[in-house]
Amino acid sequence: MAGPILVFDSGVGGLSVVQALRRRQPEAALAYVCDNAMLPYGQREDAWLVQRIRAVCEAAVAASGCSALVVACNTASTLALDVLRECLAIPVVGTVPAIKPAARVSRTRHIGLLATSATVSGSYTLQLIQDFAADCRVTRVAADALVIEAERLVAGGMPDQATLRQALALLWDDPQLDTVVLGCTHFPLLAPWLAEAAPRQVTWIDSGEAIARRVAQVVTAAAPRRGNAPSFVTAPDECLYKGLATFGFAPPRLLYPA
Ligand code: DGL
């Protein structure tokens, strides 16, 4: 029988994608893996990340018996999608910053991209901007601090509003900017707090729904959902286990990536 859909991220960011997947395919079984031992990914070296992402995904795919892998991490996808597709025998769906839909909706043609350091400066992202938003001004803002705020939220704490305001500050220099891409899967988890920290209304866009649409096309026979979904981590962390449980995941198994 077909296995679950495995969702991978460095930490809890993939849970924003889990929410979108469940909205679209409530009946599909999901599994979750996060490389919390190496979180955050956004400021690590590219070549090291590619090797690490490959090792964690290979171990988790084997342990979960999944039918497809969703790389629910912009940082990992923009670096390692090709490698993962080469080494895994199952469909792999990635996540890239939603530049294209943002360019479609921006009236002022000034877009903000909020993502990790790796994603805002990655060649994949620059190419996306060239391909789909060539007629837009794109203000790219590295907001690695928000990754930690989202982790704190899922662990049961509250995001620090001053940190959020500081992370967003560079977006507001030009009053014309009307659309902000949340180019890290951690950030949609903070959506209400981000809106509160913004000095004016803008359109916030993330990739969750687009990924869920793509997964539904690619995975036509996912295993049906039954009870708690399996999860996997790379370091013990009781607060993270509680957070995963609130999203319906079973207590994680510890993975030892090669
Ligand atoms: N959630 C990940 C992303 O979408 C990155 C978080 C991290 O820096 O580890 O880019």
Q: Beta fraction of the residues?
A: 15-25%
**What structural class do the secondary elements suggest?**
alpha/beta
Q: List the bound ligands.
A: D-glutamic acid
Fill in the CATH topology of the largest domain.
Rossmann fold
- Total of domains: 2
Largest sheet: 6 strands, parallel
Helix-residue proportion: 40-55%
The strand count comes to 10
Low-confidence stretches: none
Q: What form results from the Cα inertia axes?
A: globular
Notes on the structure:
This protein is of the alpha/beta class. The chain has two domains: 5-95 and 209-254, 3-Layer(aba) Sandwich (Rossmann fold), CATH 3.40.50; 99-206, Rossmann fold. The chain is 43% helix and 16% strand. The chain contains eleven helices and ten strands. It has helices spanning 14-24, 46-64, 74-87, 99-105, 117-121, 123-132, 145-154, 161-168, 191-197, 208-218, 238-246; strands spanning 5-9, 30-34, 68-71, 92-93, 110-115, 137-142, 179-182, 203-205, 231-233, 253-254. The strands form two sheets. It has a six-stranded parallel beta sheet with strand order 4-3-1-2-9-10, with helices on both faces. It has a four-stranded parallel beta sheet with strand order 6-5-7-8. The radius of gyration is 17 Å and the shape is globular. The two termini are 27 Å apart. The protein binds D-glutamic acid (DGL). D-glutamic acid (DGL) binds at residues 9-11, 13, 39-42, 73-75, 116, 119, 147, 184-186.
What's a concise summary of this model?
By secondary structure, the protein is α/β, with parallel strands linked by helices. It is 43% helix and 16% strand.
